C-alpha cells in the first residue's frame, strides 16, 4: 500500500502529519465514488419501464432515496457504539444490498420473468440506498473533523465534499467503458464501487486518531498543501468536463477512465512530499494569529485557547443587539454570536434557522430534484442522445461549485464577507437557469441551465456544513445538520410531484422502443416543450423565494460575522505585540 510506504518514509518527520493527509485522501476517494444518488437519471427510465409504473410513482422512488437522509441521525447513533471503520463497511454493505436488488429488477423483470417485485419493497430498497449514502457522508465528516484543527477543518470538509459532486461523472466513465448502452450497469456499479473504495480506504481510516483534531499547532505548510490539493481537484474537474462529456468507443472510454483514476490518486503525492520534506512543518503558521485549536471556535475565527473577558463578550453582544435587526419583530431568533451552541429545541425557535432552512429547501434541494428528472427532461426535449453529456455537465459543474465553497476560507483575510453572503450569491444563478429553460427550451438552453444549476447547488451543498457550524455551534453540528437536511426528502417529494403531475398530464400512453436496448414497452410518455415548461416556471419561482430568504439571512447574520472578524483582528494584534 502506498500509505504504508509514506508512513515508513515519514517516520522521522512526524507520523501524525502524514496520517492526517492520508485520511483526507481516503475521504476524497470515498466521496468521489459514493454519490450514487446523482446517477439516478441514467437508469430511471429503465427502472420505470421494468416496473411498469407512472412518472409519479417513479418520483416516489427518487423521494425514497432522499428520504434516507431523514434517518441520518442513525449514523451518529451507530458511531456511539461502533468504530469508524465498522460504520464504513456497514454503509457499503447496505448500499450493496440495496442496489443489487434494483439491478435485479431491471435485469430480470425486463427479460419477462414471471417473478414480480412489490412496489413497496422497491421503495424500501431505494430508502436503504439513500441511507447508505448518508452514512458514508457522516464517516467522512467525522474523519475530517478528527484529523484537522479548526483553522483548516472547513477546507478539508469542502475538498472532501467537492468530490462527491464528481460521482456521476466517474460512474458515467465506468459505464461507458463497460457497457455504454445498458442502463442497468449503473446499478451494478453503484453496488460494487462503494464497497471496493471502502476496502481500499480502510488502512488510512484505521490510522485515524480520535484525538488528532486537538492539535497543539497548525503546521505552517498546511495552507500550501491545501492549495495544491485544490489545484489538482480543479484539474480533475476540467479533465472530466472535456473528456467525460462525449459518447466514445469502449476502448477510448477505458483510456479516459484510466486517466481519471490516475488524477484521483495524484492527491497522495502532495501530502507525501510535503510531509517528507526536511522543512520544519510543525511550527506555527505565520499567517495564523495563534496556533492553538479550540473545538468550539467558529470556522472563520482564528485559533486561540484564551477566553474572552466578560467586557469583550458584553461589547459584542451589545453591538449585535444594536445592529443585527431593525425592530422588535426582526430581533427575535437572531444569531448574536458565531459558534454559539444551539440545542435542537433552541434551534427550531431560531428565526435565522428557518430562513436558512427555507434557503436550502428552495435552493439546493430544487437542484437535486432537477438532476433526478434530467433523464425524462432530456427525453421530452429530444435530447436523450446527449444525456451522458448532460450528466457529465451537471456533475462537473456541481463539483466546481463545491470547490468554490472554499473561497471564503482562502480569502477571508483579504475579503471580509460573511459566509451567508456567499450563500446568497451562490443562489442567484438558480432562478436565472430555470427561467432561461422556461423561455428557450432547446438543447443549448438545457446545457447552460444544467451547468448553472450544478454550480449553484454544488456550492450550497458544500458550504452548508460550515454555515451550520458557524451559526449554530460546531459541537452540535451532528444533530443540527441532520435537522437541516430533512428538507431534502420533503422537497424531493413536493418538487418531484409537481414535475410528475405536469409530465403525466401532458403525456399519453404509447408503445416505446428503447433505441439503446431494443426493448419494447408500454408507458406514459410526454414529448415536447409542454412536458416541463410549467415545471421550470414553478421551480424558478420557488428558487427566487430561496434567494430572498438567503438575502434576509445574510442581512440578519452580517453583524455577527463583522463582530467575529473584529474579534479575530484584535486577537491577532495582541498575539503579535506579545
Tell me about this structure:
The protein has about 575 residues and is mostly helical. The protein is about 70% helix and about 0% strand. The chain has helices at about 1-10, 15-35, 40-50, 55-65, 75-80, 85-110, 120-145, 150-165, 165-180, 185-205, 220-245, 250-265, 270-275, 310-325, 330, 345-350, 350-360, 365-370, 375-380, 385-405, 405-410, 420-425, 430-440, 445-470, 475-485, 485-505, 535-575; strands spanning about 510-515, 520-525. A two-stranded antiparallel sheet has the order 1-2. Helix 8 runs antiparallel to helix 24 (about 445-470) and helix 9 (about 165-180) packs antiparallel against helix 12. It is globular. The protein starts with a helix and ends with a helix. Residues about 1-15, about 210-215 and about 280-330 have low confidence and may be disordered.
Number of strands: 2
Please count the helical segments: 27
Mean pLDDT reading: 77
Order of helices and strands: HHHHHHHHHHHHHHHHHHHHHHHHHHEEH
Rg, rounded, reads 24 Å
- Structural class given helices, strands, pairing? mainly alpha
Low-confidence stretches: 1-14, 211-217, 278-330
Q: What's the structural blueprint in terms of helices and strands?
A:
Elements: H1 2-9, H2 15-34, H3 40-51, H4 55-67, H5 73-81, H6 84-109, H7 119-147, H8 150-164, H9 167-178, H10 184-206, H11 222-243, H12 250-265, H13 269-275, H14 310-323, H15 328-331, H16 344-348, H17 351-361, H18 364-372, H19 374-380, H20 387-404, H21 407-411, H22 419-427, H23 429-439, H24 443-472, H25 477-484, H26 487-506, E1 508-513, E2 520-525, H27 533-577
Antiparallel strand pairs: 1-2
Helix pairs in contact: 2-7, 2-8, 2-10, 3-4, 3-6, 4-7, 4-26, 6-7, 6-10, 7-8, 8-11, 8-20, 8-24, 9-10, 9-12, 9-20, 11-12, 11-20, 14-27, 17-26, 17-27, 18-24, 18-26, 20-24, 22-24, 22-27, 23-24, 23-27
Amino acid at each position: 500500500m502506498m500509505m504504508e510506504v509514506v508512513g515508513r518514509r515519514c517516520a522521522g518527520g512526524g507520523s501524525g502529519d502524514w496520517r492526517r493527509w492520508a485520511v483526507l485522501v481516503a475521504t476524497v476517494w470515498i466521496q468521489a465514488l459514493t454519490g450514487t444518488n446523482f446517477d439516478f437519471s441514467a437508469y430511471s427510465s429503465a427502472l420505470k419501464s421494468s416496473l411498469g409504473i407512472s412518472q409519479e410513482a417513479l418520483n416516489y422512488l427518487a423521494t425514497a432515496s432522499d428520504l434516507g437522509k431523514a434517518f441520518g441521525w442513525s449514523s451518529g447513533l451507530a458511531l456511539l457504539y461502533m468504530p469508524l471503520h465498522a460504520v464504513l463497511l456497514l454503509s457499503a454493505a447496505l448500499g450493496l444490498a440495496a442496489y443489487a436488488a434494483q439491478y435485479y429488477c431491471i435485469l430480470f423483470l425486463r427479460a419477462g420473468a414471471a417473478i414480480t417485485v412489490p412496489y413497496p419493497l422497491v421503495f424500501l430498497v431505494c430508502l436503504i440506498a439513500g441511507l447508505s449514502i448518508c452514512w458514508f457522508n457522516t464517516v467522512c465528516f467525522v474523519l475530517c473533523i478528527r484529523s484537522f484543527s479548526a483553522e483548516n477543518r472547513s477546507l478539508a470538509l469542502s475538498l472532501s465534499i467537492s468530490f462527491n459532486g464528481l460521482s456521476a461523472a466517474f460512474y458515467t466513465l465506468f459505464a461507458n467503458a463497460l457497457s455504454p448502452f445498458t442502463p442497468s450497469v449503473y446499478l451494478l456499479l453503484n453496488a460494487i464501487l462503494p464497497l471496493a473504495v471502502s476496502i481500499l480506504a480502510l488502512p488510512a481510516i484505521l490510522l485515524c486518531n480520535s484525538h488528532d483534531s486537538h492539535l497543539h499547532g497548525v503546521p505552517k505548510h498546511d495552507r500550501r498543501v491545501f492549495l495544491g490539493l485544490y489545484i489538482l481537484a480543479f484539474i480533475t474537474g476540467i479533465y472530466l468536463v472535456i473528456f467525460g462529456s462525449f459518447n466514445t468507443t469502449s476502448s477510448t472510454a477505458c483510456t479516459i477512465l484510466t486517466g481519471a483514476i490516475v488524477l484521483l490518486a495524484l492527491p497522495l503525492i502532495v501530502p507525501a512530499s510535503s510531509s517528507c520534506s526536511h522543512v520544519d512543518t510543525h511550527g506555527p503558521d505565520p499567517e495564523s494569529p495563534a496556533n492553538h485549536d479550540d473545538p468550539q471556535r467558529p470556522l472563520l475565527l482564528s485559533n486561540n485557547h484564551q477566553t474572552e473577558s466578560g467586557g469583550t463578550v458584553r461589547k459584542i453582544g451589545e453591538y449585535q443587539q444594536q445592529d443585527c435587526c431593525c425592530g422588535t419583530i426582526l430581533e427575535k431568533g437572531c444569531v448574536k454570536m458565531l459558534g454559539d451552541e444551539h440545542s435542537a429545541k433552541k434551534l427550531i425557535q431560531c428565526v435565522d434557522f428557518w430562513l436558512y432552512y427555507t434557503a436550502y429547501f428552495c435552493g439546493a434541494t430544487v437542484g437535486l430534484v432537477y438532476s433526478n428528472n434530467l433523464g425524462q427532461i432530456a427525453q421530452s426535449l429530444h435530447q436523450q442522445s446527449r444525456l451522458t453529456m448532460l450528466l457529465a455537465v451537471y456533475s462537473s459543474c456541481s463539483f466546481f461549485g463545491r470547490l468554490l465553497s472554499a473561497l471564503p476560507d482562502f480569502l477571508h483575510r483579504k475579503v471580509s464577507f460573511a459566509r451567508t453572503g456567499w450563500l446568497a450569491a451562490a443562489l442567484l444563478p438558480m432562478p436565472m437557469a430555470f427561467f432561461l429553460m422556461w423561455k428557450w427550451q432547446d438543447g443549448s438552453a438545457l446545457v447552460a441551465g444544467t451547468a448553472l444549476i450544478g454550480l449553484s447547488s454544488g456550492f450550497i451543498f458544500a458550504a452548508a456544513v460550515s454555515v451550520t457550524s458557524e451559526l449554530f455551534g460546531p459541537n452540535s453540528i451532528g444533530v443540527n445538520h441532520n435537522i437541516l437536511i430533512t428538507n431534502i426528502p420533503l422537497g424531493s417529494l413536493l418538487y418531484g410531484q409537481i414535475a410528475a403531475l405536469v409530465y403525466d398530464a401532458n403525456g399519453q400512453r404509447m408503445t416505446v422502443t428503447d433505441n439503446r436496448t431494443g426493448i419494447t414497452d408500454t408507458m406514459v410518455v410526454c414529448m415536447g416543450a409542454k412536458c416541463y415548461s410549467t415545471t421550470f416556471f414553478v421551480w424558478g419561482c420557488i428558487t427566487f423565494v430561496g434567494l430572498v430568504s438567503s438575502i434576509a439571512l445574510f442581512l440578519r447574520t452580517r453583524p455577527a460575522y463583522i463582530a467575529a472578524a473584529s474579534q479575530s483582528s484584535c486577537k491577532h494584534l495582541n498575539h503579535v505585540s506579545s
